[in-house]
Write a structure and sequence with these properties.
The chain has 120 residues and is of the alpha+beta class. The strands form 2 sheets. The protein has a 4-stranded antiparallel sheet. A two-stranded antiparallel sheet has the order 5-6. It is globular, with a radius of gyration of 16 Å.
Length: 120
């Protein structure tokens, strides 16, 4: 499994931004291998961070190659005051089931090289 963490500082979002963002979100959610996402904003510095979860790197790359995503990257300076993207391989995931999470109910063992097992 993989994550793509997108952290950014906002400028003004216009109707074009919201329309393009909606298209990209729909494409992501309909891409085979998309597992979910979570997002939050840090009130102390105003940064927004969204983590997208993907079953495979190829799934993530499919979104990155989509024309809507490419268009958004070309116009990011218009809407963002800065951004950082971190792509990471998930080597473990576990929890007690007490919160909703894209990987809830799945335990990924570091020694399993991508093998998942239902949480016990």
């Amino acid at each position: 499994m993989y994550t793509a963490t997108f952290t950014f500082a906002k400028r003004e979002f216009d109707d074009e931004f919201h329309a393009l963002d909606s298209v990209i979100a729909g494409v992501a959610r309909s891409t085979p291998g998309y597992l979910g996402e979570e997002s939050w904003e840090n009130p102390s510095n105003g940064l927004v961070s969204t983590v997208y979860y993907w079953d495979t790197l190829a799934s993530l790359q499919a979104l990155m190659k989509h024309p809507a995503h490419i268009a958004a990257k070309q116009r990011q300076q218009q809407w963002l005051a800065g951004y950082q993207v971190v792509i990471a391989e998930v080597i473990g995931s576990y929890g007690d089931g007490g919160i909703a999470h894209p990987l809830a109910g799945v335990t990924l063992h570091p020694s399993g090289h991508g093998q998942t097992e239902p949480e016990r």
